[in-house]
Amino acid sequence: MSKATYPLKLPSSIKEAATRLAKKDGVSLNQWIASAVAQKVGSVDTAEEFLKRKAGDADGSGMLRFLDLVADRPPLPDDEIRR
């Protein structure tokens, strides 16, 4: 496995929390951060693949037909988009 370096700048509070958790897990801060990044990459990739499978061949036209059924009236009070 090849390794690459990356200069990482963290807010002090995040670094302190990560250091505490790494110590609790009995690993170096570098190992802990690498593991945390790997977990995040895995979860994002898994979610992306899951959503692609669920979407299948959907192109959005079904949703547009559904939205066409909604009554054309002004929003209810406190339901407006604030700009």
Task: Describe the model.
By secondary structure, the protein is an all-alpha fold. The protein has a domain of 57 residues. 59% of the residues lie in helices and 0% in strands. It has three helices and no strands. The N and C termini lie far apart (49 Å). The mean pLDDT is 91.
Provide tags for this entry.
single chain; 83 residues; mainly alpha; 0% strand; elongated
Topology diagram in text:
Elements: H1 12-25, H2 29-55, H3 61-68
Helix pairs in contact: 1-2
Number of helices: 3
Say how many strands there are: 0
Radius of gyration: 23 Å
Stretches with pLDDT under 50, minimum 5 residues:
none
Strand content: under 5%
Helical residue percent? 55-70%
Q: Shape, please?
A: elongated
What is the distance, rounded to the nearest whole angstrom, between the alpha carbons of the first and last residues?
49 Å
Order of helices and strands: HHH
Biggest β-sheet description: none
Mean pLDDT: 91
At a glance:
With 83 residues, this protein is mostly helical. It is 59% helix and 0% strand. The chain is elongated and about 60 Å long.
